[in-house]
Sequence to fold (300 residues):
Amino acid sequence: MDSYILNVATQIIIQAIAAYGLNVIVGNAGQISLGHAAFVGIGAYSAAMLTTAAGFTFWQSLPISVIIVAAVGLLCGLPSLRVREDFLAITTIGINFIVVAIFQYTPALGGALGIGGIPRARFFGTVLKAPGYFALCLAFLVLAMAVCRFFTCSWSGLSCFAVREEETAASSMGVSPVRAKLTAFVLGTALAGLSGVLYAHYMRFISADSFTFPFSVTLLSIVVAGGLGTFWGPLVGAVILGILPEVFRPLVNYRMFLYAMLLLLMIRFMPGGILGGSTMMSLKNLTAGRKGPKGGAKVE
Fold:
């Protein structure tokens, strides 16, 4: 494969893994998250510190980094138990800014200069260069998709769907909203951490600027464009939003404006996304609520 195409394809796969994690939180559990890039950054920084400062290998740092991000995700998921909708969105945005500030102003994490010299991944002693690393990322994408499929069909996934549609009714039927929300945050952030680890070892240099709020908007755009709550949506969205910036490279300085316009157009004309149907959750339902005129649940 041409090196340019290979580079774009690898980054699309890495973003798709993070998007699948966000889809678990937003699409399956119905919890608005606008700070997902922070967890990608935590995974990347954890892997970078473990491999450069502690001397760990890629395969040793990978599970440790994912566990660290999942633990942070569990703590950051606690606000979802007390705040909802717009307030939860503001909270997650704040988490993103706090994490980026820690990256930028902590000398042990490289400060504003970031962390360089991240070693390449090895597979049975062989250094994985571009084609090999692409195959590795593709394998992890398949694994992430399999995990999401299993989660969707499991009792935990069904509990998340119930809480997403009507939390009070789900609770009255014996479903624990606390367990459902925290499970979604742990799984979603763990996938974001996996994406961060792969990104760090692919770029071999990371800085706080790579995980700011605009990247969170990019991930949300991917999920919304593909279809909230759908299985193939994050992959389709990652491919579309990964290719479009390359096609319209002269407009790269207006990327965030175009993403914002895309979100607004999707909410207005295709609230279920490209793959979302009438039975799928839409961003409009997520943000507008589903209460009827007398406070009862609206039947759609």
About this structure: Residues 10-213 form one domain. Residues 39 and 228 are 20 Å apart (CA to CA). Residues 278-284, 286-300 have pLDDT under 50 and may be disordered. Residues 177-203 form the longest helix (27 residues).
